[in-house]
Amino acid sequence: MEESSRFLSLNGLSGVFAGIFALFGSAIAAIAIHKAQTAEINKLALILLLDAIVVLIAALGISIYLSVRKATRNGLKAWTSITKRMLLNLLIPLFSGAVLILVFYLNSNYEYIIPSMLIFYGLALVSAGKFTFGEIQYLGILEVLIGIFALFIPEYGLISWAFGFGILHILYGLIMLRKYR
Predict the structure, then answer these.
(1) Fewest 10 Å CB contacts: which of 104, 157, 168, 181?
(2) pLDDT per residue as tens digits for the range 58-102
(3) How many whole angstroms separate alpha carbon 114 and alpha carbon 119?
(4) In whole angstroms, what is the distance from residue 125 CA to residue 66 CA?
């Protein structure tokens, strides 16, 4: 019965990889920020945007690949009505956050981008969590809290991003691997 009401093909290893990709992305961002001059702020903003997009694509790609592989190995379909409902609940907050982040980016309100990424991603995980493992909702709550922290203390934005998308994903992935293997 649980299989018919929950998407159970999430792979803990995808969380570990997503975290590693995020840590690499934050290292690249830190290097770019360190090397940038004040006059190059628009160029830096573009580099950071591209860096975040590459991390997102890599994390999504490995997550989809590992989830489909896990479903196939377990004799399950990866694309079901539950999968569609989970993705819809995930994508509504993510898309809303992406639009807001784009507005911040276009208006050079860069200090709100990292907190918004963390907060909307966390909300997306909480929303999608009803259709998969419950632990994902705890990850979402932690992402929101880190985003709120980054909102009030923007000078720790990149560290918050690395912690939320990097360290927390690695820990979440390891917990999922241990618990559901």
Answers:
(1) 181
(2) 998 998 888 888 888 888 887 888 888 888 999 999 999 999 999
(3) 9
(4) 18
As a whole number of angstroms, the distance between CA 28 and CA 9 comes to 31
DSSP readout, 56-120?
A: HHHHHHHHHHHHHHHHHHTT--SS-HHHHHHHHHHHHHHHHHHHHHHHHHHTT-GGGHHHHHHHH
Mean pLDDT calculated for residue range 143-150: 98
Percent above pLDDT 90 for the chain: 57
The whole-model pTM stands at 0.87
Nearest Cα to Cα of residue 67 among 15, 122, 20, 24:
15
125 CB-near residues (< 8 Å, 6+ apart):
90, 136, 137, 139, 140, 143
The distance from CA 37 to its chain's CA centroid, rounded to whole angstroms, is 29
Cα–Cα separations (whole angstroms), residue 169 to 18, 32, 41, 147, 165:
6, 23, 30, 15, 6
For the chain, what are the domain ranges?
8-180
CA–CA separation, 17 vs 41, rounded Å? Answer: 30
